[in-house]
Amino acid sequence: MYWFLKVLSWLACRFSMDTCLGVGNFLGRLTWYGVPGKRKRMGIDNVMRCLGTDAQEAERIVKASWVQFGPMVMEVLRYPELIKEGRMQQHVSIEGLEYLQEAIRQGQGGIIATNHSDSWEIMGAALAQYGVPLVGVAKKQKNHQADRFIIEYRELSGMHITYSSDVREMFKMIKEGWLIGLIMDQDPSLRDGIILDFFGRKTNCVTGPATLARFQNAPIFPGQIRHRPDGGHHITIFPPVYVEKTKNKQEDIRRTMQQLVDILEQQIRNYPEDWFWLHDRWKSVRSLGLD
């Protein structure tokens, strides 16, 4: 698998970005027909409930959110070309980089809280190429060779990679001034999550960004990546969010996470095609009869 992916990467680097994005879009549209009907209906229902659209518009949004997987895969395969001087900066623009730069100047670590929108894989690579000392938190893949390839290519861009199970290393690297990139839109286990309001629905949410930030007195920078009409991407980094530290730890975490979830919700409303609607986001709350 590792060498197969390396060969695909070599081939992708022989063609232009426009050609690769075209191939990626074709593959995304083609594989859409292989998505199980039950999964499609779930995604369409989520869009209709969250955004109030009709079924036709909801299907268009869900399909667009799936198709973007194709171009994202092609971009990852082209990392060896993208990291050449200036190319990443042409392909990915950033708004709000000054917030991260100020934290770096102060030698202050922190958390970048983001989500599964647009080409989330390239977001970390782009931030690293812009000079951000970034730790990417990865989930270990079952296929060892695929895991080796993914870690190698993420590190190729300048990121440091740690596995999600190594919380101790995250604490250490925040103290050393690194910024930890965390995905915050998954449905965790009910034991580990917290019930918040998301699109007017009770939703089980992760607590990691607020928990880490509270323990380390570190800022949280909400971040979002979205698609640009020219095929590139635009990252928005929002002003830092700080966890108020009171005697009520759970309330401190709940209040901060709700603030972050509210920012995420607004960005999804602004750019609904970019968010991955096919994730069963409300699975755990359904088991409680809350959705």
Radius of gyration in whole Å, from Cα? Answer: 19 Å
Query: Into which percent range does the helicity of residues fall?
Result: 40-55%
How many domains make up the coordinates? Answer: 1
Form type: globular
What topology, given as strand order, has the largest sheet? 1-9-8-2-5-3-4
Mean pLDDT: 93
- Secondary structure: number of strands: 9
- Give the H and E element order: HHHHHHHEHEHEHEHEEEHEEHH
Structural class: alpha/beta
How far do the termini sit from each other?
A: 40 Å
Percent strand equals 15-25%
Please work out how many helical segments DSSP would assign: 14
Regions with little confidence, pLDDT below 50 for 5+ residues? none
> Can you summarize the main beta sheet?
7 strands, mixed
